[in-house]
Structure formats: structure tokens, C-alpha cells
Amino acid sequence: MSLIGAQSYAKLLENGVQAIEEVNRLRSSGYTKDNIYVISHDQDRETRIVDAANINEVGLGEEGLFGAIANLFRSRGDALRFKITALGFSSAEATFYEKELDSGKVLVIAKKNPQ
């Protein structure tokens, strides 16, 4: 799925450099840092990309209090699927993206604010 103009946009990328380039492209097309997220199966890698790109991590605002607490006890794969669905994707889409993350890819998601 990669639809600019839709409520949520997602793109799988091979590495962190490509992810940062995609973040910059999204910013130039009108998304703000508060609406762009990077997800990786490797938490350290995800944090490095988020810091380098100066964007948000999926957190309490997106997951809700109970979701955030539950993610502390979930496997990384389950937590990632929950985060992806919290950003507006179906469970089938979340499962697809999480499997791609298993292979080392990075997921960039941009979400527009409801108007």
C-alpha cells in the first residue's frame, strides 16, 4: 500500500537510509514530523532511524494506555502488529507488514490528521 492522499500511507524499505529518504519525501509532500512513523523489528534500529529523521515513535497517543501497557507483555511481532493497526491499518495488512519486517525491512507510515 502506498497511497499519498489517503488517510494512512505505508511503504516498506530495505534499509534505514531509504527510510530517512522516504521521510524527507513525505515531509516535502506536506506531512509533518508528528504524522510520520518508522517501524522496524529491531528496536535499536528503529530508535536510530527515528532520531536521525527527527520523527515520532508509535506511542501512548496512538496505542492508547491499555494498548501501550499490553505491548510491554506482548512478543515483538504482536506489539508491531498492534502498532500498525493503531495507525489505521487492518489486521491482515498488519500481519503482511510484520512478516516483511521479519526479513529486515523498515516500514514508514504517514498518517494524516482527521479533518
UniProtKB/TrEMBL annotation:
A Pfam family assignment: YflT
Record domain General stress protein 17M-like: where: 11-104
InterPro entries found in the cross-reference section: GSP17M-like_dom (IPR025889)
Highest taxon above the source species: Bacteria
Protein name per Swiss-Prot or TrEMBL: General stress protein 17M
Organism annotation: Paenibacillus auburnensis
Gene: yflT
